[in-house]
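[audit] Reproducing an earlier prediction to check determinism. Same input, same settings, fresh worker. If the tokens differ from the archived copy the diff job will pick it up downstream; this log only records the rerun itself.
[audit] input (291 residues):
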Amino acid sequence: MQNSVIGVFDSGLGGLTVVRALRALLPREQIAYFGDTARLPYGTKSAGTVHAFTHQCLNFLMGLKPKLLVVACNTASALALDKLKGEFDVPVIGVLEPGAQAAVLAAKKKRGASGRRIGLIATEATIGSGAYPQAVMKLEKRLQVVGRACPLLVPMIEEGRGEDDLLVELVLREYLQPFLELEVSALILGCTHYPLFTRAIRSTLGDDVALIDSAEQTALVVKRQLDKMRLHATRRLTGNLTCYVTDQGQRFERLASRFMGETVGQPVWVTPEMLEGRRTRTKATRRRAAV
């Protein structure tokens, strides 16, 4: 069990930023990454659809016998995590709460009005869920979270547009202008795709605004969970990364390498039949079988 994989899921390739942080902190761990690239973006879908898709993908990862699962998707973390935690026999960790904690710490370091406001850019579904304001309020009631949906960012990143692209610059300027006017102390990058635009975002907002990328915070939570379970890998070699995707796209290697900062090989293509056919016995199925 110690050398079992860590399963990481995202609706696309953005969750590879979390994988990158995991590999930096826990280099011996074997990681299986699942990107539901055929059905992205999740950010415009209903809560029920997001839960159904995420459950299906995590169920596939359960067939690899992981020691824990990471939902490296802010939309799924916001809309489905609480329910998902009760559906599998291994710990299920999201990216939302670690990001909220880091934002609160950054805000507390600021004085004046800006120290009371935190900005949030995310998908429509994540903003609509109100999950980030709720998570921040649990930690510090005096802080205000100001959110804005940014539906164009994920498609632009998945298309391979870089930070120097004129369209990216114009869209970011439009999305981020309200945060300049409000003088926020921190900005939560509420989607795992967004760190690829960190330099452009910082150029627009300036150095006084702390940019919160939940990837490193999530990796720390995973490490603490492995400490608790005493399930750190015993391998002496660097752990392997195997990627699974639901769309056999030509751009995977190029885009994945951008997210990871290193060369990533071809993924395993998971067909709809394979996804439907993988029937792992979850908590719910065992309960039904016992009746």
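[audit] rerun output stored. Observation attached for the diff report: The longest helix spans residues 166-182.
[audit] end
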